[in-house]
Amino acid sequence: MCIRDRIVSAQKLATNTQFKAYLNNDFNSVTAENDMKMRSIFIGPNNYDFSKGDAIISYAKQNGFRVFGHALIWHSSIPDWLVNFTGTDMAFEELIETYIKETVAHFSQEKIILNGQEISVVAGWDVVNEALNGDGTLRESIFLKVLGENYLETVYKMAEKYDSNADLAYNDYNLCKPKKREGAVKLIKSLQKNGAKINSVGIQAHWQLTSPTLEEIETSILAFSELGVKVMFTELDISVLPNPWELSGAEVTQNFKKFEGDKKMNPFPENLPDSVKEKLAKRYENIFKLFVKHKDKISRVTFWGVTDKFSWLNDWPIKGRTNYPLLFDRNY
Ligand code: 9MR
């Protein structure tokens, strides 16, 4: 089954009725944009805040949706108190294990009846997000430094131990680029060889009008599904704004402050010209034709947002632009 999915935030679910109406009509699964990240949940040693995630789960439950958990381990979402942790390596590993245990166990409790079967509202987790560099090697991070080069195996095994029913995914951007794709294939093979459960790979899909090409996307679908994992397109949005630094992917730490306020970089501040709208529509059509062609290999498609109004792409990589990456415009 192909699950259509949207990201949400607890705050928008609580306050925005238009947001909810569109979500309910067209989708059957949600992902929290930020509310289920480590930084939101793990607020101190033995101190967890599940309240925003719970609000999303409760909304999903009431509306017959499932939730895909994003993300347990991500170098960009480590709470400050943990980044500055000065204890022993063993104490760090214990903290991570307890955090994974508390988090997956907490969210796996909420059940829903779908097709006559009682299952967890949370279908699965992005266990590790963005562990790879562009050349396919492992990114420097506190997890690599402290837990060692087999840290993915360690944390996937932890996630399985505390919620054996959850689908476990590896999620990253630029997985349609050859080097990074090869790195991810190697990583998944090594997890499989070492007995760690991995069900799916999440291709983030922060894409542009012409890049990646359909051929590159198809090559990735085939390469990953050959490993026996499902492919998920997890953070789909298509930027229509200039990207002159040959920048692609979604490294959140890149800073392009010098372009702020530059009109050339923000060419459509009032509305999107018809010619670009047509290109965008065609691009989405072609992408979805490809997804349908390979629907037996694809388990989920998630858009990274509901309306253009709240897309992260209005502020990345340059703050304060007007982008049009999603299916719904600023008036829904
Ligand atoms: O869209 C998210 C934005 O609101 C957050 O400020 C940012 C940092 O937590 O994360 C954004 O989502 C990222 C996702 O979690 C992982 N892939 C890249 C996404 C865009 O940066």
Description:
The relative contact order is 0.12. Strands 1-2-5-8-9-10-12-13 form an 8-stranded parallel barrel, surrounded by 5 helices. The chain has a two-stranded antiparallel ribbon with strand order 3-4. A two-stranded antiparallel sheet has the order 6-7. The chain is of the alpha/beta class and 332 residues long. The protein is globular and about 55 Å long. Helix 6 runs parallel beside helix 8. Ligand 9MR binds next to loops.
Question: What structural keywords apply?
Answer:
single chain; 11 helices; binds ligand 9MR; two-stranded antiparallel sheet; eight-stranded parallel barrel; alpha/beta; globular; 332 residues; 37% helix
Give a quick precis of the structure.
37% of the residues lie in helices and 21% in strands.
